[in-house]
Write a structure and sequence with these properties.
Blueprint lengths: L1 E5 L6 H9 L16 E6 L3 H10 L3 E3 L2 E6 L14 H8 L4 E7 L15 H30 L5 H17 L11 H7 L10 E6 L2 H5 L5 H13 L2 E5 L1 H8 L3 H10 L6 H13 L1 E6 L4 E8 L4 H8 L1 H5 L1 E8 H7 L2 H6 L4 E3 L9 E7 L2
Parallel strand pairs: 1-4, 1-5, 3-9, 5-6, 6-7
Antiparallel strand pairs: 2-4, 8-9, 10-11, 10-12
Helix pairs in contact: 1-9, 4-5
Amino acid sequence: MKLGIVGLPNVGKSTLFNAITSAGAESANYPFCTIEPNVGTVAVPDGRLDALADLYHPHKVTPAVIEFVDIAGLVRGASKGEGLGNQFLTHIREVDAIVHVVRCFDSDNIIHVEGGTDPARDIEIINLELTLADMDIVSRRIDKAQKLAKGDKKYAAEAALFERLLSHLDGGQSARSFSCTPEEQALVATAPLLSGKPVIYCANMDEAGFTARDEHPYLRQVTDVAAREGAQALPLCAKLEADVAELDAEERALFLGELGLTEPGLPRLVRASYTLLGLISYLTAGTPEVRAWTIRAGTKAPQAAGVIHSDFERGFIRAEVIAFDDLMALGSMAAARDKGLVRSEGKEYVMRDGDIVLFRFNV
């Protein structure tokens, strides 16, 4: 899973990126201090792996991972090449979802490219640029479909669909909110649309604002926008996240407790990302390795096995499955088998989050 961290310049993107990835990207008080995208891979926090490691004492523990990409700041006119617009838009096309960092703090020391803090306006600027870029793509798609329709009438329906989408975008609405059938959505998905990407709005607050976040007017603007779009809003303080990242486990727990939190921002961001993209994790466990595997919710057992290796899917026989909670309650796989809690599932089994699986296959 690849998440792109985007936003206007000087909203805290690189500070947040550094805090969650420990990647050491440059962070400065001027626009476009990030030119080439910074990339960092982080482990998905999952306490179930620690519990399984205590049970199996494996040689290796391998968590699922997420790749974060810190992308150059966007300004008005980016869809027409202003600032680093063309580079920015190219990098966004490569990610699975957008983490849109929105400035929700005032500061005389940190320049705001629009002259002052206004989260709703800032969100609208970026969403508009993404939509304008999409309109160019959709217009070209319509032209191509109309030319092909002269020789093959099936392209007439495609042209009509993208004309509807163009009208929708022209009304200032994102591709995410375009209403169409599942078959039409599959066709729309063949176009590399930016405003169709799932989004999490990260409301980046200063320490005082984050402490009083439930009553903060800037956060309310962000949550209102997210609610209208059916998106997610996540309040955080990038500066505090950077401070927390430098503490050891005991100091971190005390520091977070003072803020009324039980965990830093990364686990909250990961959970929001998994929910946004409809992802779950299943687990494999044994002495050689305990490991988490990421799949989409609704994936059947053979396809889940294929995430490990294509041979597992091709030669799938069955999956031996136990729920994580059942294994932990009984303390061993042998005890779970005695209780009949290890199930033998076939090709139609739909995987569940936290399933511990042994795939049987033959090729």
